[in-house]
Amino acid sequence: MASPQVVQTQPKPPLKRNLGLWMLTALVVGNMIGSGVFLLPASLAALGSVSVFGWALTGVGAILLALVFANLGRSMPRTGGPYAYARSAFGDFVGFQTAWGYWIAVWAGNAAIAVAFVGYLGYFFPGVVANGLSAALAAIAAIWLLTLVNIAGVREGGQVQLVTTILKFVPLAVIGLVGIFFIKGSNFGAFAPTGVFPGITSAAALTLWAFIGLESATVPAEEVKDPERNIPRATIIGTLLATGVYVLATVAIMGIIPNADLAKSTSPFADAAQAIFGSWGGSAIALVAMISAFGALNGWILLQGRVPLAAAQDGLFPKAFAKVHGKRGTPVFGLVVSSILVTGLMLMNYNQGLVAQFSFVILLATLTTLVPYAYSAAAQAVLWIREPERFSGRSFARDTIVASLAFAYSVWAIIGSGTDVIAKGFILLTLGIPVYVFLKWRQAVTARATKPTTSSATDQPAVAA
What we know:
Layout: H1 21-32, H2 40-45, H3 51-75, H4 82-90, H5 92-124, H6 132-152, H7 154-179, H8 196-207, H9 227-256, H10 259-264, H11 268-277, H12 280-304, H13 306-313, H14 332-349, H15 354-386, H16 396-416, H17 419-430, H18 433-450, H19 456-459
């Protein structure tokens, strides 16, 4: 199958290569470590200590996917990441599906992260969460503040990401490392009260949301310094760092807090910090959680304009998304439209219990991200066969095995999402088909309108002298 040939809707705009290795690694770690991890130890407590193996299983799957994205990012450093790989391997329609689903997952997920940020902000300023409207307005303020930061430039967004990632990663690592010395074996409770295999499977499904974002380094590829080197390094380093702190902190918390108390805790990290450091520990962790959500929101806002930018450049999204601000080098239109959609989602749900309203959105966002993961894993195998020159110096057998395992993990995770989520996710992806049909129709009309016509004189056969 030949690579898709699509006429560019407009010249490719200049993007500034301002993201170095550490900013890029911070983007991966910061997008992975968001808000969900702070409640996961309590959710896993009912499954027993076998849930640690669930963390490990999800970590292995995440590392397999990270290896796929590292390899693709090295051989094809194009803006859009999963979209670019899917389109190159499978053509326009699959590329559009990938961009459509991933874009929706990003801005819908941003609404959930913004809600979590406001929840932690309410720990210090209770009046903010006194009613639904004030909470929604605070979340919207955070969204637009970070949208303006990312409009200012990718360097500014990267700097915010680096600072917030350090501020949240270090305290979580400290809890994991110091907490080891406060572990009591009796606190772990039953090993597998729901069964070993069901326990591991359930834990792997619960922890999956914490690993979404491992592909983040590949999305702004054309804004990365030395992308062939830095994208794979940031992807692998970021995934390993996040996986390590997840497992270490979970083991420590399970060993510090009795299992029965942990299962009922609404702030397990804060409870563990209080047990280690005293009364000030809870407030410190609430602050870390707030910074964590704020940093994740910044990182995902940075990405929300890049996938539609890449798709629009290929004629697979409305052409306005392809616009890049000349001086700042940022996709202003895509950033603003995405944040407007997040704002609308917030306002539509402000009076119905925000956290509950967005729990299902998170599941859908996870599913619509897993589909691009599966496409990307399959794309590596296809591109290896069709364009082996891209992968010079690599082992076909090794990369194909890794891609196959990553694809199998993605499919298993999709199945684990549940039939209800799969059905609604399928509908969400299907709703993009009319958009794709319209864009193709418009391209055909434009092509016919600009096709040069031949004059009647040239249509006449030549007459011999």
